[in-house]
Amino acid sequence: MNPKPLTDNVKVQIFTANEDHFKYAEEICQTIEDAAKVRGTGIAKREPEYIKSKMREGKAVIALTENGEFAGFCYIESWGKEKNFVANSGLIVKSQFRSMGLGKMIKKAAFELSRKKFPTAKLFGITTSPAVMKINYELGYRPVTFAQLTDDEDFWKGCESCVNFDILKRTNYKHCLCTAMLFDPEEKAKHQQNSTKDQVKYEQEKSSVSL
After folding, report:
1. Which among 82, 132, 144 is positioned nearest to 107, based on CA atoms?
2. How far apart are CA 42 and CA 104, in angstroms?
3. Overall average pLDDT of the 165-194 stretch
4. Alpha-carbon gap, residue 173 to 44, rounded angstroms
5. Residue 146 confidence (pLDDT) above 80
6. Domain covering 4-210: architecture
7. What is the pTM of this model?
8. Sheet holding 142-144, edge to edge
9. Domain range list for the chain
10. Rounded distance between C-alpha atoms, residue 151 and residue 64, angstroms
11. pLDDT tens across 118-131, in order?
12. Cα–Cα distance between 20 and 1 in angstroms, integer?
């Protein structure tokens, strides 16, 4: 991807992460942890080795400045026996690069990578961030109940390091402070198909009136 200008002086480039980006793993984890402390809300912690595994698998995107400074990150996780649920997790933007639209750029890149790697999977996420919710909605995600998400126990284990995990556990994994959002490619295709049919019908009716 070509460098995108954030300001007159700052340009970033978003890459599909690989082994060349291992050196950023610790900084990514620290940035995620720092953001959780500032917000005072739930962000599950991740270890550098886990971040590196996502880079190795080509299941992460990273934003870097032209000088090679880390600016933002997001990774992909697949869940369920048939890997039919996919989450874009760990979306983070370094503090000095926030409020510039970079989060949206990273999320869009992770979304496109997810659709490429798992074209039939349902994409989902849980978040307390209004900014992330807005980006998700623009990409086609819609709010759903937790029951509509994956039942893969390993996914929910990832919430154990979150400060709000006790709420999730007490409600038997049905409610938390996070909002659950889902993108269903099958529903999206049906919606587009119906929209096309409606448009064709409208054009036919319009032609009939003209005649």
Report:
1. 132
2. 20
3. 84
4. 16
5. yes
6. 3-Layer(aba) Sandwich (3.40)
7. 0.78
8. 4-5, 11-16, 60-65, 70-79, 85-93, 122-127, 179-183, 142-144
9. 4-210
10. 35
11. 999 999 998 888 88
12. 16
